[in-house]
Protein 1
Amino acid sequence: MSSKTKNNIVSTIEPPVELDVAAIRADFPILDQKINGHTLVYLDSAASSQKPREVINALLEHYRHNHSNIHRGLHTLAERSTEGYEKTRSHVAQFIGGVPTEEVIFTSGATESLNLLAYAWGDLNVHEGDEIVITEMEHHANIVPWFQLAQRRKAILKTIPITVCGHLDLSNLDTIITPRTKIVALCHMSNVLGTINPVAEIAEAAHKKGAIVVVDAAQSAPHTTIDVRALGADFVAFSSHKMLGPTGVGVLWGRSELLEEMPPFNTGGEMIREVRFDKITWNELPHKFEAGTPNIAGVIAFDAALSYLDKLGMYNIHHHEMEITRYAFERLSELDGLEIQGPQVVEDRGGTISFTDPVIHPHDISTFLDSHGIAIRAGHHCAQPLMRVMGKVATARASCYVYNDKSEIDALVDCLKDMRKYFGV
Ligand code: C6P
């Protein structure tokens, strides 16, 4: 039995199963080490997650026993590699809601997926005076490709503003999305504020005006159940490395009607049906968009990451992170003046917590925490326009995942208290 929350995160009626964090941690060799003399507390999964033994072994296994190029050779190793690669494609298709496999395109990451779209769909469909709508809370990967597209096509880039609470302000959506709007591109979950956006509601408004909807799910796919159709999306982009998989692997999902009419982005081997000096025809989906030799080992090991997430259950993962986030809010409130950005209601957000201290710079916070073995990220998080809207130059950001528990939030908060003593505040 399943139902959907207002943010379109599929939730089950059954109570969540609590994650066995001790057992999970034992699967992640990297966590079993000391950093600067302290047990590693890894709270930077929004930047990149760590990898379980299953994923590391899958990479080794591929290179030790199975490696060859794919879709080309007729020998045993070529067949094994092709089979492994295509198995991951089927797994991704299931993982995002049971879509046709040919709608799943492997890229090098969410960034490449979004660039592919901006060139292949954008250059074909966006014309002078058309509008591209993004939001104020986007990562640069979901701003720069659209900015560049707008420049190339003499189109207008518009933004949906955010409220002081870190939600999208949808009060003027009707005037922001107009019949001239061709693309509405937004993140499902903000990498700074943690906000989970009501994508389906925005998609409905966009579709009414004839625009397509591009969802940057880089921060949500690792943490919540993703059903691309329930989101109302036309295209969805995400990265393997944020969801226990290898770096250099990303996904672009798109509705096949749209993918069919798009020209290729990268060109070369594999993406063609026939090449002559006077005429070239394209390969069928998804190969049309996968030119050259891809990250074969990475894609194959991504399957192991997805299996690991399946085993834990995305609903359970989401619940686990909500519990940690709730606890983090409680404990961080012990620090006077510490400001947490984004929604203060845990149900409206993910487990990515950006904060600022009234006196100590985020870079100093991160350096101090690192000297005590705690990894967080500090800076603008590749979201400079959002920082400007927030009136900040940087934030400190702690982000949790399946291997974190409340004791690590304790370590974080205790260390922040020590830091204030150290800095004399
Ligand atoms: N955000 C962070 O620390 P790539 O680099 O292609 O895997 O993902 C890009 C990207 C796109 N959208 C969102 C919402 C993201 O958060 C990211 C990556 C990391 O926040 C690294 S900058």
Protein 2
Amino acid sequence: MNTQPIGIFDSGVGGTSIWTAIHALMPHENTLYLADSAHAPYGTKSKEAIIALSKKNTEYLMGQGCKIIVVACNTATTNAITVLRETYNIPFIGIEPAIKTAALQTKTQTIGILATKGTLSSELFSKTSGAFTGSIKIIEQVGEGIVELIEDGKLFSKEMKALLKLYLNPMITANIDYLVLGCTHYPYLMPLLLELLPKHVKIIDSGEAVARQTKAVLVKHDLLNLQTKKAQNRFFTNGNTRVIATLLGEKYKVDYLNF
Ligand code: DGL
């Protein structure tokens, strides 16, 4: 069982940012990554649709013998992880925008969050952010169109830069000192974000925290892979294999899967 892969899924290519953190922390773990790019973006879909797609992804990964499932998607986590945990007998790790980290550290009492509509309108998110409203100002911005451009392989395009300017400028004017990335596609925007944001604004992404949490849960369930041989890392997408391969620096083979 311990040599079985860690299953990771996202609505598309973004969750590879989480895979990278997991692989860096646990290089001997076998992994299986599933990108449901044919159905991206999840962020504009109803809660029911997000749950149905998340179940389908989970069942595929469980069918492949995965020992744990990492929901490498804020939108799927905030809308579906409760149902997934109730439905399947396997440990789940989710990812949520790291509002708390930013809220506890802000000096300007103002933080920005960029996430999908599905995440920002979810109950789970309102609970987390609700705990801080009153003490600090949270500027929520839907990153409409960003996931689509990344899925299209237009990460560093003119359109992307224009969208980011539109979304970040009101936050800059409001004097944020933290920007929380609430979507696993967004860490790939880092060079553009660094260019567009003032130097003092810190950017928070939860990839490493998710990797640490995954390891802790594997240890707790006695599922850590103790072998030292090279891990097997497999990537599947029902979209464009080239986009993922490029994001992974052309170091891994990505296979097309019709699902
Ligand atoms: N990577 C997903 C997330 O973290 C993108 C959601 C979408 O497909 O809209 O929310």
Protein 3
Amino acid sequence: MKCRRCKELAQIALPSHHTAFCRDCFERYFIRQIETGIRRQKMFTHEDRILCALSGGKDSLALMWVLSHLGYDVTGLHVDLGIEGSSPMARGQVEAFCQDHDLKLVVVETAPKGLGIPEVYKALKRPICPVCGKIKRYYFNKTALEGGYTALTTGHNLDDEVARLFANTLRWDQSYLSDQGPALPAEAGFAAKVKPLYRVTEFETAAFCFLKKIPHVKAPCPYSKGASFTSHKALWATLEEKSPGSKIAFYDGFLERGRPAFAALEPGHGTKLSPCRTCGYPTSVEWCGVCRLKRQVAGLPPEAAEAEE
Ligand code: AMP
Ligand code: FES
Ligand code: ZN
């Protein structure tokens, strides 16, 4: 097969785009897809200070590479969750990447704040992924706001977005369907959150890392019993194989027609939030979820009990 652009021997087939590329033209295509996403969703400009959440996996490292290549002012953020074996490996990968490419990096450790994942797991004794997600989002946002960053990027790709949209659609979750998307604007207490990889698939980010020789963590987190949405991703892989282009058509169609329709059903959507009494993070109750969790892990009574004394 020949590369669509330069007619040299193709190395990567992309059935969903009815095309194949050689190494250089694939790289160019990959970067173009990300630029298109940033432009279409008005994610940020070269005036912004961008914080890029780096897990050590292929998606976020590929994203950081592309953003710095495109000349954006980008700083990496790694949240070290204190998991024996896996966290040092992830952190090491991120630190080495940033050092090799001369990129700025901020590391936040959760264990000294009483929120190491093993301790949280011992205290809660239930599936930890949603709680871990909450802790990570809290520190992503806090670091972005305190550091004066104007956009927070994560490495969520098209497969992640389609699987999440599909799950929300199966439940007809009106609230999520009215504002799910690759760009959430900043609002009181929250930094703008954007996902510049929403137009590229997991396969494409893996191919990019392979071609650019970007080492990354491959092992799943020891606490996750299979990644989230695994069965939905498998369904979509079958659908995409039978009908190439389904994923991007489903997602783009949602952004253009689905989301506005759901948003119209939810005027003034959203719960009223006020600052957490301990840390100032926006919350719908008096103390935010992370402050309540910290006390629970430390074996202390809830804040409310103490405030009443
Ligand atoms: P996941 O939910 O693990 O698929 O991760 C989705 C995105 O969240 C990644 O692409 C990263 O941008 C970000 N992320 C996940 N874990 C971490 C972490 N420990 N530190 C910084 N960013 C992370
Ligand atoms: Fe959060 Fe595994 S990455 S529990
Ligand atoms: Zn709080």
